[in-house]
Amino acid sequence: MYTQISTFAALQLLLANQGALASLEPVPPTSQSCPNNSHLSPLNHLRSCPPLVDDETAILTNSWYPWSIPPTCFLPKKQQKKRTQVKAPKLCTFTTLNTWAGTPLSIITTPETAADIASFIHSPYISWLENDRGGLPFKPTHYPKNPYKVEKLPNKGYGVVATEHIKKDTILMVQPPVMLQLLESAEQNDKWETRDVLRLLQRAGNQLPKKQQREVMGLASQGKGYVLDDIMKTNTFDVTVGVLEGSTGQMGWGSHSGLYPEIAVSFLLLPKVGRWITDLNSCFTRYSPSTFIMEVVAYKDISPGEELSISYAPLNILSTDRSELLKWWGFTCTCALCQNPTAIKKSDKQRNRIQALLEEFDTPSKLTEPKIAEIEELVREEGMEGQMGDLYNIIGNVYAQRGEMKKAKEYGKKGVVWLSWYAGGDSERISIAKAFVERLEDFERGARDWRP
């Protein structure tokens, strides 16, 4: 005998069963619920806590996923000599032969950082990230044709020269790294033995496919010390990767050196005499911490035959500081500005004036629109537009301290626009700028009190 039930009752039963099934599904983890506060996918149903892998776990579990090769690790100095209760981080080499971009990558970092970034190395959700940066794809504007070439320049060594007119904001190069190294380990430090760091560096290079090994070993060097260490010091960019300092297990950003062979070949070209002559920088680099991609973008309109160049030093520092910083690459800059004492004197004076104005703004009452206009003009004259977003953010914060929320929001939004382009849509700098504007909007709606 069959019991007849109404359509409404059947629907109620169906919904109840679905609710019961849903309650059995695991709850997607959050950054805070993962042991190492890992970066997670923005898509809830794809979230999972990445495993913390090192040489010991690889042996115990017979698994080193998501890495292609079992990691090699070394303990820090103090733990090698004496076991301590406070566990300091290991330093390891991690290698994957197939990232999301289809390229290999070797990383010298801590197990905590490796776990923190594992999901983004293999599945960074490019469409989501491209949408977050206004639909701009991670590929050169002229793809697949390059509007430039590398050639020998008279009395200059090798350089990159435009073969056609290049418009301002054109994306010229897009490349993921082949090697990343925790910056702290690349310098003299009290955590890890130098010989251990060099062993890990050698293994990181050897674990790359032959094609990438040839690319890396063909890069310029200064002829100092172990060759691969020399190549890394000569050709890498400072990038932010994973957890704070790569060892705290807390959310943040850690400084690493990133090796991008195509960009290094094109822009970090050092002749044997150790001097590189170029025009003032016509391009800038933009880094994406969510994908590790480095882009080279035209800073201005570039004419055919004009040399392409990037700044080796932060845009806002003085000439003496630039000279000292460039010694890291082992050469002396002989660009038009650095070789003109009169121009250097004027440039340093203008940069000092920018700094003096910003120091004045530490007293909020001294902020005025004419002073802001003066800063904007000086920034343009010095070719420091890439810093304008940060300056607007500072100005917005000063207005907020004065209680002028409309002006604060105006300059806060300007900062977001400039930083979105020059720093990148997923950079820490843009995150800070956006958070400032969001706080102002919450204040406007009465959703929160204002606290500087």
| Series of H and E elements | HHEHEEHHEEEEHHHHEEHEEEEHEHHHHH
The tally of beta strands, per DSSP, is 14
Amino- and carboxy-terminal Cα gap: 73 Å
Give the strand content: 5-15%
CATH topology of the domain at 341-444: Serine Threonine Protein Phosphatase 5, Tetratricopeptide repeat
Query: How much helix, percentage-wise, in residues?
Result: 25-40%
Radius of gyration: 26 Å
Structure in words:
- The protein is an alpha+beta fold.
- The chain is globular.
- It has a domain at 341-444: Alpha Horseshoe (Serine Threonine Protein Phosphatase 5, Tetratricopeptide repeat), CATH 1.25.40.
- It has helices at 7-24, 55-61, 77-81, 111-122, 126-132, 183-186, 194-206, 210-217, 227-235, 261-267, 319-326, 341-360, 369-381, 388-401, 405-422, 428-444, and strands at 69-74, 91-96, 105-109, 148-153, 157-162, 171-175, 179-182, 237-241, 254-259, 275-276, 283-287, 294-298, 307-308, 332-333.
- The longest helix has 20 residues, at 341-360.
Secondary structure layout plus pairing:
Layout: H1 7-24, H2 55-61, E1 69-74, H3 77-81, E2 91-96, E3 105-109, H4 111-122, H5 126-132, E4 148-153, E5 157-162, E6 171-175, E7 179-182, H6 183-186, H7 194-206, H8 210-217, H9 227-235, E8 237-241, E9 254-259, H10 261-267, E10 275-276, E11 283-287, E12 294-298, E13 307-308, H11 319-326, E14 332-333, H12 341-360, H13 369-381, H14 388-401, H15 405-422, H16 428-444
Signal peptide: 1-22
InterPro entries: SET_dom (IPR001214), SET_dom_sf (IPR046341), SET_domain_protein (IPR053185)
Protein name: SET domain-containing protein
